[in-house]
């Protein structure tokens, strides 16, 4: 459903979310709700219709990447039958949606995944990745590939990273940290299943690019850096993939204070 909508309502790579809501007669309310929620889908029993409320106090402007994901998430609640009918018939309580990478609710996970597919449909996403390489003349993968996708699809670097891990054109592993603590990771299915040299909730390894950032007075290293596989992992001695050159490049979010450590092979 999300892929179909993305193809029907689009301007090149940009999914026209407002047009989807308009076509479905779902009014959008971008307003100030302090810190009550990022987005919320409500059913009006008197009018027998749905409304989507988006909180601009949390940075969810209509033209922002955060606002677009919030709206796509709420559209997910609307288009997923179990969510929409649950709200309409009182089987589900109206709930506040927040941007939360570590979602615990299956309903919120489903809406997040719908939003990801709606904003970054698989074929367009993969095709643009290859097209970017050809146009830039750079056949090598790097963080720039993800940044270009983020701009083209108007999605945050984190949502772009997660989607790339699912359907991207290159094997990747990424660790997201904050305050020198590893918070979570993204791994593509074709990246080796090696044991980590870190645990979620613990410090990132000192010898990594991210580790140097945290331990050298927050000096940012934004270039592509070669590193050994055993800086982040315990690769098996008999795994030939450990002999390939691995690279790390970091993205630093000044707004939210997290660091993305992106890793890949040639």
Overview of the structural elements:
The chain is elongated, with a radius of gyration of 20 Å. Helix 6 crosses helix 7 (143-153). The model has no long low-confidence stretch (mean pLDDT 92). The longest helix is centred in the N-terminal third of the chain and has 15 residues, at 65-79. The two termini are 35 Å apart. By secondary structure, it is α+β, with helices and mostly antiparallel strands. The chain is built from nine helices and twelve strands.
Topology (elements, then pairings):
Elements: H1 2-8, E1 10-11, E2 14-15, H2 17-23, E3 28-31, E4 39-44, E5 49-55, H3 65-79, H4 81-88, H5 106-119, H6 122-136, H7 143-153, H8 157-167, E6 172-178, E7 181-187, E8 195-196, H9 209-215, E9 225-227, E10 233-234, E11 246-252, E12 258-265
Parallel strand pairs: 3-5
Antiparallel strand pairs: 1-2, 4-5, 6-7, 6-12, 8-10, 9-11, 11-12
Summary keywords:
266 residues, alpha+beta
Q: What gyration radius follows from the Cα positions, in whole Å? A: 20 Å
- Largest sheet entry: 5 strands, antiparallel
Strand order of the largest sheet: 7-6-12-11-9
Number of H- or I-type helical stretches: 9
Order of helices and strands: HEEHEEEHHHHHHEEEHEEEE
Number of strands: 12
Per the principal axes of the C-alpha atoms, what is the gross shape? Answer: elongated
Low-pLDDT stretches: none
Q: Determine the oligomeric state from the structure.
A: single chain
End-to-end C-alpha gap: 35 Å
Helix content: 25-40%
Structural class: alpha+beta
Portion of residues in beta strands equals 15-25%
Summed over residues and divided by their number, the pLDDT gives a mean of 92
